[in-house]
Amino acid sequence: MDRFSPDKGTSGTLLLLLSVFFLFAGWYGYNTQKNKPVDFNTEIRPILNAQCLACHGGVRQAGGFSMLFPEEALEITDSGKPALVPGNPEASELMNRITHHDPEVRMPLESAPLSEEEIDKIRRWIEQGANWDVHWAYSNPKPANLPAVRNKKWPRNGIDYFILERLEKENFTPSAEAECGTLLRRVSLDIIGLPPTPEEVYSFCSDPSDEAYEFHVDHLLESPHFGERWAAMWLDLARYADSKGYEKDPHRSIWRYRDWVINAFNRDLPFDQFTIEQLAGDLLPNPDDQQLIATAFHRNTMTNTEGGTDDEEFRIAAVIDRVNTTWEVWQGTTMACVQCHSHPYDPFRHEEYFQFFAFFNNTKDADRDDEEPLLAEYSDDQLHQLEILAAKIDSLYKLKEGTSVQRVSFTSPENSIVSVDTLILLTEEKMKAIRPVTTPIIRELPESERRTTRFFEGGNWLAQTFEVQPGVPASLPALPDDAPGNRLGVAHWLISPENPLTARVLVNRFWDQIFGRGIVETIEDFGTQGSPPSHPELLDWLALRFMNEYQWSIKSLLKEMVTSATYMQSSAVTQDHLRRDPDNILLSRAPRFRLSAEQVRDQALAVSGLLSSRLFGPSVMPPQPDGIWRNPYSNMAWITSEGEDRYRRGIYTYLRRTAPYPAMLTFDGTSREVCVSRRVRTNTPLQALVLLNDPVYVEAAIALAKRMHSRGGDDLDTQLKEGYILALARTPGHEELAELKKFYHAVLNEFHQSPDEAGLFLENVESPDLYLASLAMTASVILNLDSFVMKE
Question: What per-residue confidence (pLDDT) applies to 9?
Answer without folding.
Answer: 52
